[in-house]
Amino acid sequence: MHRTVTYTRRRADAVLAAVGLAVVLAAALVARSGTVPGPEEWVFRRLNELPGWLYPIGWPFMQLGNLAFGGVVALVAAGFRRWRLAGAAIIVTIGKLAAERAVKSVVHRQRPWTSIGDITARGDVPHHGWSFPSGHAVLLAGLATVVVPYLPRRVRWIPWVLVAANAVMRVYVGAHNPLDVVAGTGLGLTVGALANLVVAVPVDRADDPVT
Questions:
Q1: In the 8-state DSSP scheme, what is residue 7?
Q2: What class, spelled out in words, does domain 9-201 have in CATH?
Q3: HEC readout, the chain
Q4: C-alpha dihedral over 32, 166, 200, 81, to 10 degrees?
Q5: What are phi and psi of 8, to 5 degrees?
Q6: Contact 59, 130 (CB under 8 A)
Q7: What is the pLDDT of residue 156?
């Protein structure tokens, strides 16, 4: 027997979009000077100076933030006939590019190699260029936001673990400062929540619908 799925637009997504944007604005107020404050540098060094043997373990988590992963999620969703999720993944991928570019046009802060100096750069991470916000964090947080409503409750924590692992690894390899990934995650939450509002998500009995 075919089960009919009902979709809704949730107030929770509207709230999440606003919270994510607030995180971006708060981080931008700190990063807009182009410098890295002492507390942020302290966090950076604690992560960047972790043992080198973590790199091959954490490397796969970084790849989840690559732009192509948005297409992978969309294709997998389409393969399972989850057309709304496929559309949401495409919206997130395109929205990531637009939102990241908009923020980088306002906040100019260089990568840790330049903004902090004397760091451990691992792999092929760039030494120069605007690094606020982290595009990897934007994409993965956005994808997590649209995927989670389709998952069983018992495994909904998994995408957020991947988001956290990706953020930590981006700092660990020296690609980003901590507020870069914080702002990227916030921006991703906003983009993903807006995508959910556009396409609607499967009804959960705990959801509080907007319509």
A1: E
A2: mainly alpha
A3: CCCCCCEECEHHHHHHHHHHHHHHHHHHHHHCCCCCCHHHHHHHHHHHCCCCCHHHHHHHHHHCCCHHHHHHHHHHHHHCCCHHHHHHHHHHHHHHHHHHHHHHCCCCCECHHHHCCCCCCCCCCCCCCECCCCHHHHHHHHHHHHHHHHCCHHHCCHHHHHHHHHHHHHHHCCCCCHHHHHHHHHHHHHHHHHHHHHHCEECCCCCCECC
A4: 150
A5: -145, 160
A6: no
A7: 95
Q: What is the pTM of this model?
A: 0.91
- Each residue of 169-194: pLDDT tens digit? 999 999 999 999 999 999 999 999 99
Distances (CA, A) of 158 to 109, 151, 165, 191: 31, 10, 11, 19
